[in-house]
## 1
Amino acid sequence: MSKVLVFTETTDDNVKSVTLEILGKLTGQEVDVACIGNLPEAGAKALAEHGAANIHKISGAGLEQYSPEGYSKALKTVIDNGGYDYVMAGSTSLGKDLMPRLAGSLDAGMASEVTNFTMDGGTFSGTRPLFAGKVLAKVELDGPKPHFVTVRPNALGMPDSPSAGAGNTNDVNADVGEIRAAIKEIVKGASEKVDLTEANIIISGGRAMKNAENFKILDECAEVIGATVGASRAAVDSGYAPHAMQVGQTGKTVAPSLYIACGISGAIQHLAGMRTSKVIVAINTDPDAPIFTKADYGIVGDLFKIVPILTEEFKKMM
Ligand SMILES: Cc1cc2nc3c(=O)[nH]c(=O)nc-3n(C[C@H](O)[C@H](O)[C@H](O)COP(=O)(O)OP(=O)(O)OC[C@H]3O[C@@H](n4cnc5c(N)ncnc54)[C@H](O)[C@@H]3O)c2cc1C
């Protein structure tokens, strides 16, 4: 059995779902969770239901906003006193920034963005996609502990029957001292919807959208089916959508249950970001578009005709 600390990010009313995915995989290990700032009641309950023995709620001056320096110092106060074998977190924008910094400062091994892992006998072994998902590497860690692991959101899936933990909350006051590079303000993007990396359904538009205004047909469809809207790099580079919406090698890596690609050709760099989606639907006028080789369902046709029809049909089903 290993002792594992899982760092969780919180939302306004819960914890990020990737945390619960990770906890589901840690059944049989001794698991604590750490968060910084406010932990909503529903989040604390979910953590306990998914196996957290202790929940360290860290607060202190300088931790009101995320900063890599402040958060890493704060989390280190819990790590230093916990005797942990592993520290895990979601491979979110924040997790990808924070965890390598911590691992580096402790000279510890790290497995980044794994899509699956086992803990046989308490020893971590992970799977990590390389070369735009063309190769799956098996990752094992050695050297001084704790070892650090980030896990791609939506890759593990939610546990069917999680085993509960005591969920004892422990308030930790961290003195992070002076923070040299502080984030003054975080401005939310235009979309208030679920972050792409956590979304269960994504509908993305490519160069074929022609302009930013046309993305509203994807917004309308997304509204009906509870999807988040994404974009290809061609759409982003053309100014139709902000970079935060970009899916792919130089954008976000996503693994939703359903990915609907509208007017996207299926370049390798786009596929790198969405090929692990559970079900892929492609709408494209070109029957030879590479996206169809990866799609579970393909519709050859004009997205400007197909998407509004789909939206109307989805409305009837809701
Ligand atoms: C280093 C590097 C990193 C990159 N990173 C990324 C990345 O992160 N994400 C990414 O997406 N790309 C990335 N790219 C770019 C990538 O190579 C492609 O250029 C890009 O994905 C193409 O976007 P697209 O499919 O929207 O456009 P296109 O390739 O131009 O495809 C448009 C598609 O729309 C179809 N179409 C046209 N009209 C309609 C219509 N009315 N209805 C339906 N279909 C229609 C066409 O048949 C075509 O298949 C990267 C490239 C490089 C070199």
Note: The domain at 3-173 is CATH 3.40.50.620 (Rossmann fold).
## 2
Amino acid sequence: MSTLEESIKRAAAALAEAKTIIITAGAGMGVDSGLPDFRGSEGFWRAYPPYARLGLNFESLATPRHLVEDPEFGWGFYGHRTMQYRAVVPHQGFAILRNWTKQPGIHCHVITSNIDGQFQKSHFSEDEVVEIHGSIHHLQCTAPCAPKLWPNNHQFEIDLETMRTKDIPYCSNCQSVARPNVLMFGDFQWIERRTRMQEERFNKCTDCVDCKQAPVIIELGAGKAIPSIRWIGERMVRNRNAKLIRINTREAEVPDGQISIALGAREALERISENLA
Ligand SMILES: NC(=O)c1ccc[n+]([C@@H]2O[C@H](COP(=O)([O-])OP(=O)(O)OC[C@H]3O[C@@H](n4cnc5c(N)ncnc54)[C@H](O)[C@@H]3O)[C@@H](O)[C@H]2O)c1
Ligand SMILES: [Zn+2]
């Protein structure tokens, strides 16, 4: 048996016995749904050629500054992503995860740095999801004049040459430009209330008896560049005797004794699923 097949069997065995399944996910989880990850400037520029021409990388675009100083440009980026994430159809791997975790007696949590809302689209309930970097489907004031969020129902048309848009949402309270409720770089205005409430719910539940017993963490497409998601899993390995299954095409290395699957998220989940049947 190859090492890969062995890892898939080990993952299936761990999941078959799990009482608590914690799904952790980064941008790589969206790739099989057709979304780009932002792996390095090259990966980012392949997804957004106009930004390559301007020499702007993800870090220099994902800041509240453009939204305030040049909203047509700032919203060009987030408006484009809003429309893309709104339209995306989650790949089969999401349904597989939902199927495993909806079995009676299973506790399920999702922790993701993705802002695209694909887990909710795949019938994970709001109660189950922690979005550590927020969600593009919620807006807030750029000021912000109040700690208020509202749904992002705005339509955006983007000029794909310039990545600019005329469709700017505004705060109905103070008429400042609105922004997505997403944690950006150098961001002191992000309203973290929604994410903190999600985290509190998670922490309360992980204190319960079932969740305390060695959860199985299934991590999908979480990169090393911003390693918050990887660290969450690795910390639970150390502190909670968790078993970590790390699925990642290119960065699948794991701490000793954990399970590494160097495949795309969808294929890995399908193959584990075959072994669970
Ligand atoms: N869909 C989204 O919401 C979205 C998309 C891009 C970036 N982001 C944000 O950008 C930041 C980037 O960090 P990141 O670590 O999430 O992404 P990243 O782009 O830095 O890394 C992606 C990781 O996924 C792996 N990967 C690529 N394709 C895969 C596949 N098909 N299956 C499994 N793994 C695959 C790569 O090897 C890499 O380790 C995060 O803060 C995230 O919130 C969000
Ligand atoms: Zn306001």
Note: The two ends are 19 Å apart (CA to CA).
## 3
Amino acid sequence: MQIGKILFPISSLGIGMRIGIWVTGCLRNCKGCANPELQYFDKSKDAPVDDIYAAIKDYPFTGVTISGGEPFLQAKDLAILVRHLVEDDKEDILVFTGFLLEELQSKHDPDIDYVLSHIAVLVDGPFIESKLDKHPLRGSTNQRLYFFKKEYQKAYEDYIADGQRIDYIPVGDEVHFIGIPFEGFRELYPKVNIRDSKKEDPV
Ligand code: SF4
């Protein structure tokens, strides 16, 4: 699976203390994409999913967010990753995709079907800059949230009601800004570690 980055802990892309996994490779080139460096496929970043999972499985995460890039362009590996997580009872899995749910379903791909039937939340649709949203889990208003596992829905709705937030994660000389960007978020670093529009304390 071609992976661009893995970060832990993050609280900006879903409930609880999460691990974030970003794949490389996407064919859409949405104007204003938040992760343009992840649009390119990069074979040098290819690693067996079993190895990737072995490296992350002991982190104390309560949920997993998979983004990119386009995760469903690596559907076979994505399904293996989701299977590992589900087998270890880590079922709060949120996946971002530029595809519409209907497009994914119409492929009748067993790997895609497996992922869709085992993840907790899907955020679908391409980012459309002219439809910018102020929402913690989607960049533009055309994107839709599907709560496939109803036991997580209330917690996600409460999380969404709390507003947008950004994780500022220093890695070497860089700072990774993780979350759905909002106006002025860059200026907040390093004054705060986690910015939430209604809460002062990190989750
Ligand atoms: S689908 Fe997502 S990763 Fe791909 S170009 Fe659009 S915003 Fe970027």
Note: Confidence is low (pLDDT under 50) at residues 193-203.
## 4
Amino acid sequence: MVGLTHFVVRKTLQEYLPPGRKALWPTEMLNSRRIPYQRAGQSIETRFDDFEAGLCPQLLGNEEGFIRDSISKLRDWGARAIDINMGCPVKRALRHNYGVALMGDPDYAAEITAIAVKYAGELPVSVKLRAAPPPGEARNDETPADPDPDFLKNFCLKIQAAGASWITLHPRTAAQRRKGTADWSQIASLKQVMSIPVIGNGDVQTLEDVERMFEQTGCDRIMIGRALLAKPWLLSEFGRRAPASGTFAAEDPIVSGASYGKFLSRVLELSREHYPEPLGVRRFRFLAYFGSPYLEYGHHFYSSLTSTDTYDGLSRRLLDFFGARFERPQKMASRTSLRY
Ligand SMILES: Cc1cc2nc3c(=O)[nH]c(=O)nc-3n(C[C@H](O)[C@H](O)[C@H](O)COP(=O)(O)O)c2cc1C
């Protein structure tokens, strides 16, 4: 996730994964036109480390040479899998004909997948994509409306035939961006035709949602985006409960803001260690923008963060809000409207 799943956040989140448990850790989307000219660690986006056993860089691209050179670098930097972005709806990606624009041409998308598979060698290649547009809705500015209800299935079957090892579906259309509700029924219908694993994504905020998504869609794995940035303990709760009982608590057992405060403190500590101040402060605020709506006084907390440009300033604001030992009784909701 752009601006969010950078090195420090990945490192902090991984601390919540119970021992012996595995997860895939996508990076921010990386532009294949830039990676070949970068050094490892030169920017926040190219900062990877040994702890990243499930590192899965996500590439934005559509040209063989750039994809080849990017994959070669990413492998050297520790990639364990390569994900191709076919879901990004921003204008810049559409202009270059990658991101969700690739969904406008299934054969072309399959060709890009096959190219990535060829150069990835032993590394698995996956594709992250969006929902099919409902009949009559254009996929992007250039593509015509597609009335074919089987579009998504046919698209994914081509991706599978091109050698993808799994796909991740965020079932919203490009036009929806992150608004409205993710249509999980599209995950379910995809699951019926695919032989490679399908990872379901969209609107999962609680353990109950995790269970519901598994039940309703039959998906093989789940990707959690925004909610994990507010409630990283979903990872440990899920990891601990899943094998024993097979069922999850209806609500997260931990809903105290103190847990969120501890998460932010750890991110801040690692940011100080690894990032120059202005960059680390900006990234920290962006992270808090997505998690703070879960707090009862999240708006107040978030706006306090916007009035400082230093790590010390951020520390003071965390202290003011959560207390030196996180003893202030800040309440946290288990879900929000996800309207951001
Ligand atoms: C700020 C932001 C940046 C994102 N960047 C990416 C990205 O680079 N690549 C990607 O595949 N999805 C990206 N996403 C989409 C998420 O991966 C995910 O599909 C979406 O938020 C729905 O899942 P959620 O409801 O669990 O958040 C981004 C989402 C947000 C909020």
Note: The mean pLDDT is 90.
